[in-house]
Amino acid sequence: MAAPMLEIRDVHASVGDKPILKGVDLVANAGEVHAIMGPNGSGKSTLANVLAGRPNFTVTQGQVHYMGRNLLAMKPEDRAREGVFMAFQYPVEIPGVNNAYFLKSALNAMRRYRGEEELDAIEFLSLIEEKLKLLGLDESFTKRGLNEGFSGGEKKRNEIFQLLVLQPKLAILDETDSGLDIDALKIVANGVNMMRSPERTTLLVTHYQRILNYIQPDVVHVLVDGRIVKSGGNELAHELEKHGYAQFEAAAKVA
Amino acid sequence: MVSAEQVKQQLAGQEYKHGWVADIEEDIIPRGINEDVIREISRRKEEPEWLLEWRLKSYRYWKEMREPKWANITYGPIDYQGISYFAAPKAKGTGPKEIPPEIKAMYDKLGIPLEEQGLLAGVAVDAVLDSVSVATTFKDKLAELGIIFSSFSEAVKEHPDLVRKWLGFVVPQNDNFFAALNSAVFSDGSFAYIPPGVRCPMELSTYFRINAENTGQFERTLIIADKGSYVSYLEGCTAPMRDEHQLHAAVVELIALDDAELKYSTIQNWYPGDKDGKGGIYNFVTKRGRAVGRNSKISWTQVETGSAITWKYPSVIMEGDNSQGEFYGVAVVNNRQQADTGTKMTHIGKNTRSTIISKGISSGFGQQTYRGAVKILRGATGARNYSQCDSLLIGDKCGAHTFPYIEVMDPSAQMEHEASTSKIGEDQLFYCQQRGITPEDATNMIVNGFCKKVFNNLPMEFAVEAQKLIVVSLNLEGTVG
User: Fold this and answer.
1) Do A85 and B446 lie within an 8 Å CB cutoff?
2) Distance between CA atoms of A131 and A224, rounded to whole angstroms?
3) Number of Cβ pairs closer than 8 Å across A and B?
4) CA–CA gap between residue A37 and residue A39 (Å, rounded)
5) Per-residue pLDDT tens over the stretch A178-187
6) Cβ–Cβ of A102/B435 closer than 8 Å?
7) If pLDDT is split at 50, 70 and 90, which confidence band does A254 have?
8) pTM value?
9) What is the DSSP letter of A175?
10) What residues are paired with B385 via a beta bridge?
11) Of B286, B359, B352, which is closest to residue B319 (Cα–Cα)?
12) Which residues, listed in sequence order, are joined to residue B347 by a DSSP beta bridge?
C-alpha cells in the first residue's frame, strides 16, 4: 500500500520561544478531506504553518512525512514545488507585482522543478480564464497588483484562484472561511469541492462549522491546547456546533 | 517581460561588469587647475574667444565659491589640484567609418553599437570617452529633418550662434560650486536641437565612459526643443573599477519652447566602489530644465545604481502657462554607497503641473536621502503638484531619509504629498516561497514591483536594462537567506 499523503507523528512546535503544538498525530490519505477545528489559540494555524515551513515556527519534536518523504527537511519553496499548498489566513500584499504575473511565475517555477515545459503567456491566459469564471472574478482581477488594495473577500478568493491554477496534491486552507459573507463562502467552498479527487488531500483549518455545510469532510479533528483530542466523522462537527468547544477544553485541562 | 530567473541566469556571479580598463593611448593635460589649464583645454578644442572668456569667468566664480556641505553625505576632501581635467584618446576618427579599432572594440565590449545597424538600430548614439566625443551615429539621417545632434565641441564649431544663445540659459555659471567648475573645464558632451514642429523619429542617446586614470569627467549637455517639437533623449554611463575616487561633475541644460516636449532618461551606472567603500565615482551633477514655452513639458526619468556618492536633483522650472514638469526616479544604494538625490519643481506660469515619483532602495550599509523641493510662486494660479516618495529597505544596516521642502505662495495651488517607507518583509518572502518562488527571485520581484511606476517611463529596451542593473547592484544572490 502506498504511503499516506500526510503522516504527522507526535509533532511538538514552538512559535518563537512559545510551545504551541504539544504532540499532534494525524494521518490523511489521498482523496480525503480533513477538517481541523478548535478554539482560538489551540494551534490550528500553527499546524498549517509548520507544514508549509514558515520561519520562526520551529518543530522541536516529532516527524512529518509527505508521501513517505521527510517534509520537515525540505525548504518551503521545495515543499510548494512538491505539491504542498497553503491558502493563507492573511495573504500579503506585494505592490506593483501584477497578480497574473506572480501566479505565472509560481506555476512556471513548479513546472521547471518537475521538468515540464513552462507555459507561455497565451497558454497561461487560456488556463486561468475558466478558473476566473468559476470564482466569479473578472479579468481585471489579474491585472491588479498582488492583493494590492484587495478587500478581505477578494484576498481569500485570490487564494482559491491560485489553488485552482496550481493544482497541488496537498491543500491546506488556513481559516479561508473567516470573514467571508455567505455568497463568498459558497464560491470558496465550490472551488474547494472542485479540487476533490482521489489523488488529492485537503486539510481544512477552521473555527466554524459553517463551511462544513458546503464541504463534506471525511474526518473531523478537534484540536485543543496543541493536541488532537478527538477525531470523528462529519457528525462531530455538528456536535461542536451545538455544544461548542467547552467540553473538550475542560477535558484538556484535566489531562 | 524578462523573468527574474532569466535575469539572474544572465547575471549569475557578476558584480560590476563594466569595471575593466581599455588600453587606449590618451593625451592627458597634467593634473591641476588654473587659468593656463583652462586656456589649454580651450586651445586643444580650437574654441572661439568668447567661449574661452566664458570659461575663465566661470573659473573666477568657482575660486570664490565653496563646496556645498548641506547634503546628507560624508566623504573625504576632494583634491582639485590632484585631478587631470582633460584626457583624450590619441587616435582620432571623424565618423562611424573611421573609428579607431581599439575604441570601437571598447564600445563593442560595453554593448554600445557605433554602427548604424544592429541591436539598437532605432537609437542614435553620441559616444563620449573621457573628455571627448569619439563618434555620433545617424547624424546625416537626423539632419534631413533639420535635427542637430552632435558632440558639444562640434556644435561649438558648426552652430556657434545656437550654442552661444543657450549655453548657461538654464544653469548660470555661478549656479553652484560644481556647476561653476564644470563651466570652467567642461570637456565634451552632447548637443541637440530639434527644429519647430519636428518629432524626432528616434531616441537620441549619449554614452559616457570614463577610461583614463586620475581624470575627472566634466561633460556638458544642452538640448533645445523648439516650438511644437518632441524629443526623447537617453544617457548611460560606466567607468572602470579603481581604488581611487574619480570626480564626475556634469551639467545638463534642457529648454522647451511653446508646445514642445522633452523627455530625458538616465541610466547611471558609474563604478560604485567596492563593498568596503574603496574607490567609486563621486557624482556631483546639475541637471535642470526650463519649460519656458506655453504648454511645454519636460520630463526626467533616472535610474541611479552606480557611484560612491550621488548628488543630483534634476529639476524643472515651469515658466510657460500650462507647462509641465515630471520627475521619475529610482535610486539604489548598496554596500557603502551614499545618495542624496531628488528634484526641484518651480511653478511660475499659470496652471502649471508637476509630478514627482521617487523610489529609493537601500541595502547593505547604503544611505539614501530623498531631497525634493516644490515651489509655487505668487501668480502661478491653478498650479498643481503631486509627489510620491517611497523608500524600500533591505536588511537592517542601511538607511533612508526624506527631506521634502514645500513652499506655496499662491493660495489657488493644489499639493499632494505621499510618502512611505517599507521593508521587504519575511511575510512577503514566505508567501512567495509558499508558491514555489525562491527568496532571491521573490526579492527581485518585490523590488521590480516597487520600481514599476518609474520603469514604465523608460523606453522598452532600457527598462529591461534597468531591471537587470538593479539585480546586479543589489547583488541579490547574497542579500537574502
Assistant:
1) no
2) 36
3) 78
4) 7
5) 888 888 888 8
6) yes
7) low
8) 0.82
9) S
10) B354, B415
11) B352
12) B318, B376
Within 8 A by CB and 6+ apart from A107, the residues are A119, A124, A165, A166
In a domain, residue A108? The reply is yes
Look up residue A117 and give its DSSP letter: P
* Residue B248 bridge partners (DSSP): B217, B283
CA distance A3 to chain B (A): 24
Q: pLDDT band at B269, cuts 50/70/90?
A: confident
Q: Supply the pLDDT for residue B7.
A: 46
Distance CA B21, CA B319 (A): 44
Is residue B424 very low, low, confident or very high in pLDDT (cuts 50, 70, 90)? confident
How far apart are alpha carbons B270 and B412 in whole angstroms? 42
Q: What's the rounded Cα separation, in Å, for the pair B314 and B374?
A: 12
Phi, psi dihedrals of residue B427, rounded to the nearest 5°: -65, -40
Lateral strand order in the sheet of A69-70: A18-28, A6-15, A57-66, A69-70
- How many degrees, rounded to 5, is the angle at CA B443 between CA B310 and CA A51? 155
As a whole number of angstroms, the distance between CA B356 and CA B350 comes to 19
Q: What is the ipTM of this complex?
A: 0.96
Give contacts of B438 with chain A, Cβ < 8 Å: 77, 109
Angle at alpha carbon of residue A11, lines to A83 and B432, rounded to 5°: 35
User: How far apart, in whole angstroms, are the C-alpha atoms of residue B210 and residue B159?
Assistant: 27
**Torsion angle of the four alpha carbons B420, B421, B423, B425, in this order, in degrees rounded to the nearest 10:** -30
Nearest to B132 by CA among B169, B179, B85: B85
Please report the beta strands in B130-219, taking only residues with DSSP state E, as ranges in sequence order: 132-136, 148-151, 190-194, 203-209
- Here the CATH number for the domain that contains residue A57 is 3.40.50.300
A1 found inside a domain? no
Length of chain A: 255
| pLDDT score, position B479 | 38
Is the distance from CB of B390 to CB of B358 less than 8 angstroms? yes
- Measured in residues, chain B has a length of 481
Q: Which domain holds residue A138?
A: 6-254
By the CB < 8 Å criterion, does B450 face chain A?
yes
Q: Is A167 on the interface with B (CB under 8 A)?
A: no
pLDDT at B346: 98
On whether any CB of chain B is under 8 Å from the CB of A52, the answer is yes
Q: Which of A79, A97, A113 sits opposite B445 (nearest CB)?
A: A97
Residue A158 lies in a domain: yes
What's the grid cell of residue B164?
552661444
Inside any domain, residue A163: yes
Distance CA B246, CA B11 (A): 26
The span from the first CA to the last CA of chain B, in angstroms, equals: 26
In the block, cell 563594466 appears at B18
Grid cell at residue A107: 506555476
Q: Which three cell numbers stand for residue B430?
A: 514566505
Query: A-chain residues within 8 Å CB-CB of B435?
Result: 80, 102-103, 106, 109, 162, 166
Do residues B88 and B131 lie in contact, with contact meaning Cβ atoms separated by under 8 Å?
yes
Q: How many domains does one find in chain A?
A: 1
Instruction: Give percent above pLDDT 70 in chain B.
Output: 83
CB contact under 8 A, A109 and B437: yes
According to DSSP, the β-strands at B132-136 and B123-129 are antiparallel
Report residue B404 as a C-alpha cell.
521634502
Cβ atoms of B417 and B390 within 8 Å: the answer is: no
pLDDT in tens, B19-61: 766 766 677 788 889 999 999 999 988 999 999 999 999 999 9
Q: Which chain B positions have a beta carbon within 8 Å of A166's beta carbon? A: 435-436
